[in-house]
Design brief:
Length: 266
């Protein structure tokens, strides 16, 4: 097979109903660690998540398996060619269709996401929406990791359904962005973080108005001459909840005031 897979090592969801990430990348080895370390490993071990990596060089012509060429019009760098990417995506779609048929379901085309400065900034709502597809037939997404100066625009126009950006800066390729998205989505799946309330208590969650998270403290009660806020030692959960929400609003106003207009403050 031309793809490499990081999937379940144990039981869990049937493959056709796992949350599946197909990553088109020239650097497939970058994705080894995500299924082997950290809390998200639980999702791979249980079979709730699959990750398949597809290298366009495996679908390129010639002995050198060339995937890039010089840009028309001149300029620095190289551009990823459309044809190897088209063949790669065709192989991804065929493999996903075969997996759906194997569980007795019709194939549903997965979104094709390109990481790009032109993309919509990634927000919690989009991450949560991807996580909520878990368990559905053909759930998941195809992630395209560009390299060099970019990708032939004709392939983007023909095949990409969504473009996503991590921020107003440029990376050497889309792999880091893909890893960030996969981690953000997988950690929202049931059972991954251990405590179902863990993601609810984090920054950007709608349960707290989409605000930043509040400060956290642990032992000792006094460190560096600073004491833990008294309210957290009071045992009064109503006071603690009110203090935490007040702190969320304060920190958001201080560090991310752009979030306040859309915040749903209780």
């Amino acid at each position: 097979m031309s793809e490499t897979a990081l999937a379940a090592s144990g039981g869990g969801s049937p493959a056709g109903r796992s949350l599946r990430f197909d990553v088109i990348t020239l650097m497939p080895e970058w994705f080894d660690a995500i299924a082997q370390h950290g809390v998200v490993r639980r999702a791979f071990d249980s079979g709730a998540v699959q990750l398949k990596r597809w290298n366009p060089r495996d679908y390129a012509d010639g002995g050198y398996r060339r995937v890039d060429d010089r840009p028309f019009g001149g300029g620095p760098g190289m551009v990823l060619m459309a044809e190897p990417l088209a063949r790669t995506l065709q192989a991804v779609q065929a493999d996903r269709a075969a997996q759906s048929i194997a569980v007795g379901a019709d194939a549903v085309g997965a979104p094709v996401v390109l990481f790009s400065p032109a993309g919509t900034p990634l927000r919690h709502a989009r991450v949560a929406a991807m996580a909520q597809t878990a368990g559905q037939v053909d759930a998941g997404v195809v992630l395209v990791c560009g390299r060099y100066e970019g990708i032939d625009q004709r392939w983007i126009d023909a095949h990409v359904t969504e473009q996503i950006s991590l921020g107003d800066f440029v990376l050497s390729g889309g792999e880091i962005a893909a890893l960030a998205l996969i981690d953000a989505v997988v950690r929202l799946l049931p059972g991954v973080l251990g405590d179902a309330q863990s993601p609810v208590q984090e920054s950007f969650h709608p349960a707290h108005g989409g605000l930043l998270d509040c400060p956290h403290y642990t032992r000792p009660e006094v460190w560096g001459g600073q004491a833990v806020p008294e309210v957290l030692l009071s045992g009064n959960h109503a006071r603690i909840d009110a203090w935490r929400q007040e702190q969320r609003q304060r920190l958001t106003a201080q560090h991310r005031p752009d979030l306040l207009p859309a915040a749903k403050i209780k």
